[in-house]
Structures are given as structure tokens and as C-alpha cells.
């Protein structure tokens, strides 16, 4: 989720699609992509994000589900949509289905 002032990413060290990319490189890539798009939309140039990022290791399935729920609802809580799907800067692996659909 790319928010107006920050972004959120939930990923796994076991995610095959990341290949050899580490979290720092992935965050840098996402920030660079989003900054280019925002700068084009706003007709501006220059740095948009701070270089730093904060990561949190999620120790179990409950922590993972809590993090995913928090991230998905962040745009709604910020008043940027009535549902997570309303927010155009939110992408999920689950492609339109509920991220928590497979709760068991």
C-alpha cells in the first residue's frame, strides 16, 4: 500500500518471486516507482521519500494476519476509501479476493 506519506509492504523471506532481492532493495524499488508516478501526476521533480525504512519480523501466523489486516485497512482508516479495494494504490497478491480469505 502506497499511502500519501508512507508505504506498507508485507512479504515473506520465502517469497520465490523476489529472487535474490532483499527487503531494502525491494523497498527502494517500490519507493522509486511510486515517486516517479507521483512526480508525474504532480508535475514536479525530486525526492519524495526518505531513504530509510522500518521493518518488523512477524513471528507467527497470527502476527502475519494482523499485519495484513492493518495494511489493508490503512487507507480506509485514513479516509481514502470506504473499502480497501476503493484505494488505487493498494496491490495484493490475492488479486481482488480477501487477503484473510483462507482463515482457518
Large-scale geometry? globular
N→C terminal distance = 25 Å
Secondary structure: number of strands: 0
The tally of helices reads 2
Main β-sheet: number of strands, strand sense, barrel status?
Answer: none
Portion in helices: 25-40%
Give the strand content: under 5%
Structure description:
This protein has one domain. With 104 residues, it is mostly helical. 6% of the residues are buried. It has helices spanning 23-42, 61-77. The protein has two helices and no strands.
Summarize the model shown.
By secondary structure, the protein is mainly α.
What topology emerges from the helices and strands here?
Layout: H1 23-42, H2 61-77
List keywords for this structure.
104 residues, mainly alpha, 2 helices
Amino acid at each position: 500500500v502506497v499511502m500519501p506519506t508512507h508505504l506498507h509492504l508485507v512479504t515473506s523471506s520465502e517469497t520465490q518471486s523476489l529472487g535474490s532481492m532483499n527487503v531494502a532493495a525491494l523497498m527502494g524499488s517500490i519507493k522509486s516507482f511510486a515517486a516517479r508516478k507521483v512526480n508525474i501526476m504532480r508535475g514536479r521533480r525530486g525526492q519524495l521519500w526518505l531513504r530509510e525504512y522500518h521493518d518488523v519480523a512477524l513471528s507467527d501466523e497470527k502476527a502475519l494476519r494482523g499485519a495484513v489486516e492493518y495494511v489493508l485497512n490503512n487507507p480506509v482508516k485514513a479516509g481514502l476509501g470506504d473499502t480497501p479495494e476503493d484505494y488505487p494504490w493498494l496491490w495484493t497478491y490475492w488479486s481482488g479476493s480477501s487477503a484473510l480469505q483462507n482463515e482457518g
